[in-house]
Amino acid sequence: MGKKLLSNFILKNYEVHEWKHAIAILANDFPNEFKDISGLLENFNLCKVG
User: Fold this and answer.
1) Among 38, 35, 33, 42, which residue's Cα sits nearest to residue 13?
2) pTM score, two decimals?
């Protein structure tokens, strides 16, 4: 169930590992924090300079 809670963008652009249902716990018990982390990952850009 855990990885299904993540957006396709996150699954496509990050290497995702789940440990002891961490994603499901975060999403269900701490929905505001889950939303914050998901939003950060979906909008984060690291640009190579030079």
Assistant:
1) 42
2) 0.82
